Amino acid sequence: MCHGKNPLLLGRLSHRFNRRIIFRGLDEQWKLISKRSYEYGDICLFKGRIYAVNQSGETVTVGPDSSVELAAQPLDPGIPGLNKMLVESEGRLLLLAINEMFYSFSIDFFKLDEKEKKWVRLMDFDEKEKKWVKLRHFGDRIFFIGRGCSFSASASDLCIPKGNCVVFIDETVLWIDNKRVFHLDQNQLSCGAKYLNLFLPPKWIHNI
């Protein structure tokens, strides 16, 4: 992100230490912005501001002067999901709490309440069961999730017949079986080749 001629970069020190550090073009130095661990966390640019989330769900914004401001309180400790990922979708900043176990896999979605500085779980009313349940229908939206590079898109814009899924596009999010797709309506994790083929280079490059 650039403020005038001064670039502002936020990155992770290493896979081992998981500290967020910031680089400013003004002084050309790297600076540690927090002593907290950001293991299993993520970085996202939203409305021109850098957001960083840690494992607890606590989220901060980083200003051009290296100042750190709380954007959202930690999630309730009872909410499952070791990995916390950020993604912008249709003008909203969403948090994905990914719970990956040997016997189960689930994702909870939260939206940022900027005024209250908290994450609000997205819910839907099940008329048959007459109760509120986790939102599982996002129309034709596809969420492409990677560490520091997540985004969402419309399935129709990508010429894909079905959306409403989460595609893991790199090998840093899941423990095993990366580069897969999670179908939200089916609550099922499967091979994501059809979606990941979108990122293959055009055929003419192979002929060079």
TrEMBL record:
Transmembrane segments: none
One Pfam short name: Beta-prop_KIB1-4
Domain KIB1-4 beta-propeller positions: 20-177
Name of the featured protein: KIB1-4 beta-propeller domain-containing protein
Organism for this UniProt entry: Medicago truncatula
